[in-house]
Amino acid sequence: MDTPYNPGGGLVSKLNRRWARLAARAPLSVDLDHAIVSFSFDDFPKSAALSGAAILENHGWRGTYYASAGYAGTCTHHGAMFDAGDLQRLVAAGHEIGCHTHTHIDGSRVGADALLADIERNHQALRALGYDGKLDSFAYPYGETTPAAKRLLAKRFTSLRGVHAAINRGMSDRSLLKSVPVDGGEAGIARAVDAAEGLVEHPGWLIFYLHDVQDEPTQWGCTPAQLERVCGAVERSGARVLTVAAAMAEIGDPA
Fold first, then answer.
1. What tens digit of pLDDT does each residue of 140-198 get?
2. What are 110-137's pLDDT values in tens digits?
3. What is the pLDDT of residues 46-103, one digit of tens each?
4. How many CB atoms lie within 10 A of CB 234?
5. 3-class DSSP state of 43
6. Cα–Cα distance, 194 to 234 (Å, whole number)
7. I need a surface site. Which of 9, 146, 176, 221 has the fewest CB within 10 A?
């Protein structure tokens, strides 16, 4: 479980991803006169629970942590992963815990029932780690899914997040919410900053996603200073920063 995964960039994979975006949509109207930003962390590394949370909290904000409980207490390419103590501290501080499956399973390569079984295993594992709260928000590992999985999971979760890099505006899909990465070195951080600055003229719901937050990050993470730059852009935009579940509640009941 410590090897980065590449879901593939071939023509068939690209067509499948496009079909998943177009089919089995669960409409959500994101028509805002003010911008909303959510910070989310996938998997999640201990550095996200410590450095990432501290940065958000210093701004008075809280994030959403999509947990893959199969990683708990292990070490991956992101470094040390979260443990029971991290879960407890995050919850006590007001952060949201979301679901990211137990084994970080690719939802486009297994049946919807197998995916749901892995999700239930994740929920039970989080309970065993001491988390007894709700799991309202879900993020697809690798951003991969199928129309069948979207239909099934939309009945289980209030929101389902993908990794299509865009801002949620107008008629959106709560079963495959768009999000913008905070990774990729300086070029990637510049794109994240641009996304936040663009909220001033065009309000929407911008969901950021990231992984590790450390001085020598992986290509899927960022440094604390880079995260601070993105936070600065969000502050300048005047956006409200909410967890994914809180943003869903403010935007309105799912259509």
1. 999 889 999 999 999 999 999 999 999 999 999 999 999 999 999 999 999 999 999 99
2. 888 899 999 999 999 999 999 999 999 9
3. 999 999 999 999 999 999 999 999 999 999 999 999 999 999 999 999 999 999 999 9
4. 25
5. strand
6. 10
7. 9
Give the up-direction half-sphere exposure of residue 1: CA atoms within 13 A in the CB hemisphere. 20
Structure tokens at 168: 């949620």
Distance of CA 201 to the CA centre of its chain: 24
Enclosing H/E stretch for 180 = strand 180-181
Write out the DSSP string of 93-160: HTPEEEE--SS---TTSS-HHHHHHHHHHHHHHHHHTT--S---EEE-GGG---HHHHHHHHTT-SEE
- Taken as a whole, the chain contains a residue count of 255
Assign 196 to helix, strand or coil.
helix
CB-CB contact of 107 with 141 (8 Å): yes
Tell the residue number behind the tokens 């995050």, with chain if given.
90
Measured from the Cβ of residue 73, the count of other Cβ atoms closer than 10 Å reads 14
Specify the DSSP element, H or E, that contains 178. Answer: none
Pairing mode of beta strands 159-161, 137-139: parallel
| CA–CA dist 194, 186 (Å, integer) | 12
Query: What is the DSSP code string of 47-111?
Result: HIIIIIHHHHHHTT---EEEE-GGGTT-EETTEEBP-HHHHHHHHHHTPEEEE--SS---TTSS-
> CA-CA distance, 109 to 114, in Å (whole number)?
10
Q: Give the pair of three-digit tokens for residue 37.
A: 């930003």
Give the integer Cα–Cα distance in Å for 212 and 219.
9
- 207: closest CA among 101, 98, 134, 123? 98
Q: Which residue has the tokens 């998997």?
A: 43
| CA dist., res. 65 & res. 185, Å (int) | 22
